[in-house]
Amino acid sequence: MFDTMTFTKILGAFCGALLVFLLGKWAAETLYHTGGGHGDEQQAYVIEVDDAGDGDDAAEAEDEPTFEELLASADPDKGQRVYNKCRACHKIEDGENATGPHLYGVVGRDVGSVDGFNYSGSLVAVADVWTPENLSAFLENPSGFAPGTRMSFAGLRSAEDRADVIAYLEGIGG
Q1: Beta-carbon contacts of residue 98 (< 8 Å; ≥ 6 apart)
Q2: 139: left (phi > 0), else alpha (psi -120 to 50), else beta?
Q3: Architecture of the domain spanning 67-173
Q4: Cα gap 103→97, rounded to integer Å
Q5: pLDDT over threshold 80, residue 54
Q6: For residue 15, what pLDDT band results from cuts at 50, 70 and 90?
Q7: pLDDT of residue 66
Q8: Which of these, 24, 96, 115, 131, has the minimum number of CB atoms within 10 Å of its CB?
Q9: CA 114/CA 32 separation, integer angstroms
């Protein structure tokens, strides 16, 4: 069924197709990579846009509420739901430590003041009191606020979530 002539035709067709493919690839690279408007050459057309980048960013930053405003309007019920992320390592009950220290009365409490809990030295060095602002900064990025802390939580990126959980913690221990 397969003789030498049939095999030679199939191999020739394959090599011819490969040659056409490689020549097409070379032509496409030459066409699109060397003269396609890259470098110092002028573009075929330019799309004009309004230059409003600097003013819009500043206006957006002014529109965002401050942390104090967020804390004043925080919802402790939402904070209780957000606290579920903390529940794995922290207890609310006074004096009941878990992997982390208890959080009863944490707002306004001295940093590192829970008896019987071994704090990492870096945490004690960054702040004296757990003010709402210190708690917010710590909850946003624990390892960024206190480099070397043993708390492995990734953080709460949303300022509203941080304000809600701080309002919840103020309500249970304040």
Answers
A1: 89, 90, 91
A2: alpha
A3: Orthogonal Bundle (1.10)
A4: 9
A5: no
A6: very high
A7: 87
A8: 115
A9: 67
